[in-house]
Structure to design on (224 residues):
């Protein structure tokens, strides 16, 4: 769970997740374009690629190859684990 | 100085001519035999004297790994202007063209990215409020 909190502690990585929720299955190019044009984030492609690596290590982003293409998908399961640990537990007690 | 020519690398000139004319709708401008290849250009049908696009053979060994890396990351090799990205997306999808990015509103511009079947991703863009 440390990796999940570390991943979402960064505003650029949260913006990446926002954009993948808006449309799942994006190329690195589309993610970079959306961050630049919609969020004013001017990080290099290499920096965004490293952010994606952190999100992938935390299980929040999954990459899939489709022929010659590589797409990034949002995976909310690690966030659901957070909700279950505290929010659902609290709900059960009340 | 002016820009009268730009180019895309293609894996097969005959296939590329077919795609860029019958699918995308460009018109053939020059077709000059050059040994095993051709000096092959197309232009926008509406601008026969406009900038020519050279369909250039990808024979140099450096081209393939370069293009493969761009394609993997979804990076278009070049961009063409269209009046209506959504309409072109619908038209080209109907012709079997694969889009890696559907029409996306980016504030000042709407873009989409498709596979030209010759080894490139191509962006189409529509300026908003134009």
């Amino acid at each position: 769970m440390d990796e999940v909190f570390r991943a979402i502690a960064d505003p650029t990585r949260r913006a990446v997740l926002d954009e993948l929720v808006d449309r799942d299955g994006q190329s690195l190019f589309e993610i970079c374009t959306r961050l630049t044009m919609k969020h004013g984030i001017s990080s290099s492609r290499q920096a965004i690629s490293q952010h994606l690596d952190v999100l992938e290590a935390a299980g929040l982003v999954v990459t899939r190859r489709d022929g010659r293409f590589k797409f990034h998908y949002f995976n909310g399961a690690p966030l659901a684990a957070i909700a279950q640990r505290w929010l659902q537990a609290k709900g059960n007690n009340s | 100085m002016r820009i009268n020519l730009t180019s895309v690398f293609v894996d097969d000139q005959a296939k590329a001519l077919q795609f860029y004319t019958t699918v995308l709708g460009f018109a053939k401008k020059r077709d000059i035999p050059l040994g095993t290849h051709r000096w092959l250009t197309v232009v926008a049908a509406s601008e026969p004297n406009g900038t020519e696009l050279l369909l250039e053979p990808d024979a140099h060994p450096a081209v393939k790994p370069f293009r493969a890396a761009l394609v993997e990351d979804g990076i278009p090799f070049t961009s063409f202007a269209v009046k209506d990205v959504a309409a072109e997306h619908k038209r080209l999808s109907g012709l079997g063209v694969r889009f890696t990015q559907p029409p996306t509103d980016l504030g000042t511009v709407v873009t989409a990215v498709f596979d030209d079947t010759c080894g490139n991703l191509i962006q189409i863009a529509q300026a908003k409020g134009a």
Notes: Chain B has a mean pLDDT of 97.
